[in-house]
Specification:
Shape: elongated
CATH architecture of the largest domain: Alpha Horseshoe
CATH topology of the largest domain: Serine Threonine Protein Phosphatase 5, Tetratricopeptide repeat
Largest sheet: none
CATH class of the largest domain: Mainly Alpha
Order of helices and strands: HHHHHHHH
Number of helices: 8
Distance between the termini: 64 Å
Helix content: over 70%
Structural class: mainly alpha
Number of strands: 0
Radius of gyration: 21 Å
Number of domains: 2
């Protein structure tokens, strides 16, 4: 009987509080996504930061979302940093590799872009965009034949 009372009066409120906490974090995460979608990038960065500092369950997605927002604001170094943190949190996060590759491409860091697109392709071999942009990066580096091979692969997909 003492064990039941202990659960009801001590553990149950803690359990409920953690569920409430979890719902609060999920609400903040969803709000961050909604703000990003609405073009409120600064607010979405603030909300993703709150999620990251509160709960590690959403780390990869929150870093990725924050990276997208920084990318939209033109803060490419912060975008790269956040995509990198998303990858560290989830090494199979192909979208983070793809988007970091896009930023590297825009910064004319083609070798780094090719590396990231190659990993994204390995993780998601049906992503035509990764083949297309990787091919373009190879062409810009003078690897024309190899680049066109990627472009052709993209069009087949």
């Amino acid at each position: 009987m003492k064990k039941i009372i202990f659960f009801v009066f001590i553990l149950f409120p803690l359990f409920c509080a953690s569920q409430s906490f979890s719902q609060s974090v999920e609400l903040t995460f969803n709000s961050a996504i909604a703000n990003y979608t609405a073009g409120n990038y600064e607010k979405s960065i603030e909300l993703f930061t709150n999620v990251i500092s509160t709960c590690d369950v959403y780390d990869a997605s929150a870093y990725y979302g924050r990276g997208l927002a920084y990318d939209k604001l033109g803060d490419f170094h912060s975008a790269i940093d956040n995509y990198t943190k998303a990858i560290k949190a989830n090494p199979n996060y192909w979208k983070a590799y793809f988007n970091r590759g896009c930023v590297y491409y825009d910064l004319k860091k083609y070798e780094l872009a090719i590396r990231d697109f190659s990993i994204a392709i390995k993780l998601n071999p049906i992503d035509a965009d990764a083949y297309l942009i990787r091919g373009s990066a190879k062409i810009k580096l003078g690897r024309v034949k190899d680049g066109y091979r990627d472009v052709r692969k993209a069009y087949k997909l």
